[in-house]
Amino acid sequence: MNEVVGSHDLLLVTLDTLRHDVAVELAAAGRIPNLARRLPGGRWEERHAPGSFTYASHQAIFAGFLPTPAAPGPHPRLFAASFAGSETTARGTYVYDTPDVVSGLARDGYHTACIGGVGFFNRQGPLGSVLPGLFHESHWEPEFGVTSPRSFENQVACAERVISELPSAKKLFLFVNVSALHQPNWFHLPGATREAGDSRATHAAALEYVDRHIGRLFAAASSRRRCFAIVCSDHGTAYGDDGYTGHRLGHESVWTVPYAHFFLDPAPGDPAPRGRAPRPREATR
Fold first, then answer.
1. Residue range 67-74: average pLDDT?
2. Among candidates 89, 63, 62, 70, which has minimal Cα distance to 78?
3. Quick one: which of 13, 64, 76, 93 is 20 to 30 A from 173 by CA?
């Protein structure tokens, strides 16, 4: 990451509540083509979430603890705060002398922007202000939230505005928390009803909805220069698995999440600095 930070823009997208098994199935079936074409080898990497619900997981992610590869470690991290005894800070790790990667990047000249989704980013109270308060600017409105059938489209439009208004010389760290997968998501599946509620099938339909619009976000993020992108889930959720429903609980459907990182190149003809992509498994805890 020391070859990336300082020369590239950075994009972090958390697909809030996305289950690993659903993400893998849709990629294999060709149902999320815009995401699948960006995934290394066309496949999601299986990882373990750093928390079982949004607030806990994002506190860890912003501290540098991205979802951990689902294989014996230790696994060198992309980002890490400077502290003695860290066994996962490697030569290529971007190390910062602040409590979180957001303020670390800000200290190194990045403009940091948050586009919130679920309630932990709505700034409607002290708790909902903690995570967005890490950033130079943050945006949230009800149309970005879990009850809006067009939430992601609205978030992408906001991202496009943020990017277009930033001076071209200023590096950007953009974070987007995508709320569409989170309950309620029944309205993303044609024929589903509020009375029937959410299901694994409506969850999958919500991911298809996100895929239809995520190309706009990727294009905007790479419109200024080459961009390094991380796309992952913060945790999964249960739909009756072994009797469990929801998250903030210790079930495999919650702890196992999809992850990917990759470069986004500007459109042909646009100048962009180059860098070598870190290998997918060199990335956490």
1. 91
2. 89
3. 76
